[in-house]
Amino acid sequence: MSGRPAKRPRTDHSVVNVWERELGLLPNRSFSNRFSASEDLLRRLGLDKKLDKHKGCVNTVSFNADGDILLSGSDDRQVILWDWQTASVKLSFDSGHFNNIFQAKFMPFSDDRTIVTSAADKQVRYSKILESGQVETSLLGKHQGPVHKLAVEPGSPFSFYTCGEDGAVKHFDLRTRVATNLFTCKEAKFNLVVYLHAIAVDPRNPGLLAVAGMDEYARVYDIRSYRSEGWYNFTQPIDHFCPGHLIGDDHVGITGLAFSDQSELLASYSDEFIYLFTPDMGLGPTPYPSSTKTEERMTPQVYKEHTNRETVKGVNFFGPKCEYVVSGSDCGRIFIWRKKDGELLRAMEADRHVVNCIESHPHMPLMCSSGIDTDIKIWTPGGTEKPLSPGNAKQASGFGNPRWFDGYYVDDDDDSDDESSEESSDDDDSSEEEENGEVDVEITKDDDNDHGDDDDDEDEDDDGDGDGDEG
Length: 471
Known about the structure:
mainly beta, about 35% strand, 4-stranded antiparallel beta sheet, Methylamine Dehydrogenase, Chain H
């Protein structure tokens, strides 16, 4: 015998074994990752607090690198820096935009003093927080259409990219304040401009940039080819991603993109589902390969049950190793799936109208959400308002297939139906709780005024519908 102690058998538990950490059997990083990725913890997520200061729907939320400050932008054209733990405002300032802010991001390694924004007014702007607390804002560049998203180059305090409904992708360098037109995205068949809604940089390979919009393809470009002598061929994507059954479908588009830490690409389709692509699922530079090759390669993981029809919604990962997929929905709920098999784990009631944005904390097992409501919601394990799990929720039909909801089904067309549905759900849940021996607490809807009453927002709304929401 070697005299070495036998290894303990590994047991797959969703609950983290805290005692292993106490005895030194689990390294610090492993403990942290297992704790944050625990499905038991995920099922305990509840509404912890609301951040209420904006006067329009909140289109963008993001944490700083340390995770102690939350940045938000709204239809009211204000940028707010929050101490989210105390639900207090650290700083609020006018962005300089004259229409709805669609995206706001901190630049890395800037001591959280450099912020870039994009908006429905076609502008890309730069804001610098001075030592005095004053904020200087300036125009960096303009697109020929609304600018829904921007993507910061990982680790760079100066470099970021934007995409607009004009199909253009631009690169910005804060050192020179110069905007470089990289390319205009066009589809291959008729050479038509693709209106872009989403852009993302691969964190493992910052040279790869993905864009998507009003057609079926997520296109990946190699930024390094622009910076080399062969930059003249940069307008050609190095890869295309699309589920096989959607190729040639003129009725779908992509509203959100996200890269995982493993270089997987997540795409949220309008009027369809969410798909996860691994790098080997790409169709290559030519978007119309042979049918046999397409069938062999197009096998992405799919995530269903939500609805993405009304607005330009993002999509994101959750967990220390991107173990989960999260998305908002037209039904006002947050949907959480297990990444590896697409199983729906949670469907939390979050907004009276539509949830557009979900952002994960960089270090802790919590998230924030925003949408058509004027507040931001913080979701933590053990939150005071804990929705039901999908297994105990009512099943309702919508968008041609069943959806699992926490709490009760809301018929948005009739408030009286809301009340009767709530009462019916309460009765159903009570019988289930008695049968299962469990008691779950439902979220009750608040009575805050809707953002659409703000006259200034209506005056500045480009689409003329007066609702002021993105998309």
